[in-house]
Amino acid sequence: MSSQTSRRENKISPLTNIVLNIGFILLSLACVLPVILVIIVSVTHNDSLLNRGYSFLPEKLSWIAYESLFKDYSTIFGAYGVSIGVTVVGTILSVIFMALYAYPISRADYPFRGIFTFFLFFTMLFNGGIVSKYIVFTQTIGLLDSYAALILPLLIIPFNVIIMRTFFQTTIHPALIESARIDGGGELLIFIRIVLPLSLPVMATMALLSTIVYWNDWFNALLFIRTEEKYPLQYLMMRVLNDVQFMRSNVQLAAQNPQLMKDLPNESLQMAMAVVGMGPILLVYPFFQKYFVKGLTVGAVKG
Q1: How far apart are CA 127 and CA 158, in angstroms?
Q2: Is residue 203 a part of any domain in this protein?
Q3: Which of 210, 194, 186, 217 is nearest to 97 (CA)?
Q4: 193, burial (CB in 10 Å: exposed 0-12, middle 13-18, buried 19+)
Q5: Are the CB atoms for 164 and 105 separated by under 8 Å?
Q6: Of 119, 166, 204, 225, which alpha carbon lies 20 to 30 A from 172's?
């Protein structure tokens, strides 16, 4: 009797079901349509953009934006390789180091917990600035024009460490660690064999966030990289966009080559860069989605 009553209480009416489905369809379209519009604008001719603005049905198509980007395809593919390598290595090291930082400060019996937590919060509020960062990485450590200069500045993100610490505090019960210690396990063994397997959701979540940060980073390349072969994709595309904008703003060049200035992409080039840059993230995200949702919800207060 109780199961039938519960089944009747949990049943959704047909009207409610229709409204929910329409709402989810609209939300899905709100997420997908901007991506489709970016792709369409990236292959829209500059004249069509000037006459009609952004449109899902452009008057004239043009591949000049992609031709401008891939004119020197070896450079683009080389930048892709640099970005992929830095992102993969940086994400793995970042997750490992953040977990090694977050786990001790989540333990109530760690004597230096307060000191390292203070350092963590302090770096969220204050930093030394760009000049001191540049001096440390180039003169003190000597990482000018090296791949390490693209990895180390983003290795530990304080906010992500706080999320991991909260996860460890709410998910890893102290009794579990105590029982493992009674069985003869050391701290490193407990961390590797017990804590990490139970922390896959938050580890995957932090891996996704670190992947996005490393993939979208261009500012560290601007500061530390001097060799073109070491440019990551985002920085290389930013240079291409700056070159195009400089050419469009050059009055003398516009007077000499009016047709070139007319055909030279601007808006479409920006969208083409967005399409090229977001491709790998769209491929990676589905593999992390399940853990990402679980990592954000696990440890929440339950009634």
Answers
A1: 12
A2: yes
A3: 210
A4: exposed
A5: no
A6: 119
Separation of alpha carbons 199 and 298, rounded Å: 10
List own/partner pairs for 211-215 with CB under 8 A and 24 or more apart: 211/87, 211/91, 211/281, 211/284, 212/281, 213/154, 213/157, 214/83, 214/86, 214/87, 214/90, 214/91, 214/94, 214/150, 214/151, 214/154, 215/83, 215/87, 215/277, 215/280, 215/281
- The residue written with tokens 């990289």 in the block is 225
CA distance linking residue 35 with residue 285, whole number of Å: 15
Residue 236 confidence (pLDDT): 85
Say how many domains are in the chain: 1
Q: Reduce the DSSP state of residue 61 to 3 states and report it.
A: strand
For residue 197, being part of any structural domain is answered with yes
Give residue 247's pLDDT.
Answer: 62
Cβ–Cβ < 8 Å for 276, 237: yes
| pLDDT, tens only, 116-162 | 989 888 888 888 788 888 898 888 888 888 999 999 999 998 889 99
CATH number at residue 185: 1.10.3720.10
Nearest to 136 by CA among 64, 223, 68: 223
Determine contact, residues 106/172, Cβ cutoff 8 Å. Answer: yes
Q: What per-residue confidence (pLDDT) applies to 259? A: 55
Exposed, middle or buried, 145 (CB in 10 Å: 0-12/13-18/19+)?
exposed
